[in-house]
Amino acid sequence: MSRKKYTIECGEDEKLFPLVASKKKLKSAYTRVFHEGILEVVNDRDLSGSDLRVFLAIIGNLGYENKFTMSITSLGELLRMQRQNVGSCIKNLVKRRYLRKEKGIGNVNFYLVDPTIAVRCRNSKYGKVIDLWDRPKY
Question: Are 55 and 42 in contact (CB under 8 A)?
Fold first, then answer.
């Protein structure tokens, strides 16, 4: 692990404080969130606080290629919300086009997250995620 020395200015008298920090590599999966996209969601006055909580939980549990497959019941347990309230929030997010409902195998559905807001995929697969979002709904 490499170590780099930084200098930070603090306070009114502009004292300099040295800071030695380690450059860490992320070992777990991560999701990229785009500044303009997330600001659009946060500033949407048609979304409630519960809608935002559900959306952030979805981003936090996003699968590869922007597919969210967790059940509404499990998401409700995670957020300590009633299943009906979670379902209502998801419907509102779909209506506002931040999520899109997709037909899965059998009678199991999943949701896609708008890739201009957040994305979880390899760089080489980003075009595929955009195409999946842009294609006509089932």
Answer: no
User: 50 versus 126: which is more confidently predicted?
Assistant: 50
* Ramachandran quadrant class, 49 (left: phi over 0; alpha: psi -120 to 50; beta: rest): alpha
CA angle at 101 for the pair 106 and 54, rounded to the nearest 5°: 115
pLDDT computed for residue 10 by the predictor? 56
Q: What is the CA radius of gyration of the chain?
A: 19
Name the residue among 51, 34, 58 with its Cα closest to residue 130.
Answer: 34
pTM equals: 0.76
Query: Does position 98 have pLDDT exceeding 90, yes or no?
Result: yes
